[in-house]
Design brief:
This protein has about 190 residues and is α/β, with parallel strands linked by helices. The chain is about 45% helix and about 15% strand. A six-stranded parallel β-sheet has the order 3-2-1-4-5-6, with helices on both faces.
Length: about 190
């Protein structure tokens, strides 16, 4: 059973200026830092004209942030929707234990998708059961993958990826869907 979902009354596309080419939201963790380094910080170093953001607490002072990476220490939940809407793409990084377990989506995937923000993600087993890869979500393994997405995908296709992900979330991943799944599991167990 999947347990993450989204409330579409709280997360939906919002018209606002697109402040960043790529953003990431998450509390610092040792296991997510290498993928963050590879999939956001290195692309930021390589593309000085790009605009990046990392939102979340507990990042050590030893991290070297490029001048084109904005840091937001704390982002209240009421500001998450606007944060996603202000990004051309958002980055999803999965905790190492969730990658090992597979089939473990983060709530952030559903929130970003409900906002219509295209997602670039690391890969984990089961991701393709949540979103169709290359159509509803993009997978990156290297800084070059990320830079290709950011610089080469036309705006119309970028928006279409976000729209298709939003459509999928609304069709399969809302809180109402999870409640129905739970009822079905209970009924089957009886």
């Amino acid at each position: 059973m999947r347990n993450c979902s989204v409330d579409p009354s709280l997360y939906y596309p919002q018209e606002c200026d697109q402040t960043w080419n790529l953003g990431y939201m998450g509390t610092y963790s040792d296991d997510r830092q290498p993928p963050l380094e590879r999939l956001l910080l290195e692309p930021a170093r390589q593309w000085g004209e790009g605009r990046f953001v990392v939102a979340g607490p507990q990042y050590p002072d030893t991290i070297q942030w490029s001048s084109n990476v904005e840091r937001i220490e704390h982002l209240p939940p009421a500001e998450h929707q606007r944060f996603y809407s202000a990004q051309q793409f958002t980055l999803n990084i999965t905790r190492a234990d969730m990658v090992r377990a597979g089939y473990s989506p983060s709530v952030r995937l559903f929130e970003a998708a409900a906002c219509g923000t295209p997602i670039i993600s690391d890969y984990w087993q089961g991701l393709e059961t949540i979103f169709e890869i290359d159509k509803e979500i993009l997978v990156a393994y290297s800084p070059e993958d990320v830079l290709d997405y950011l610089r080469e995908i036309p705006d119309s296709e970028r928006r279409a990826i976000g729209f298709r992900a939003r459509k999928r979330v609304l069709a399969e991943h809302t809180a109402a869907h999870r409640a129905l799944e739970l009822e079905q599991y209970i009924m089957a167990a009886r």
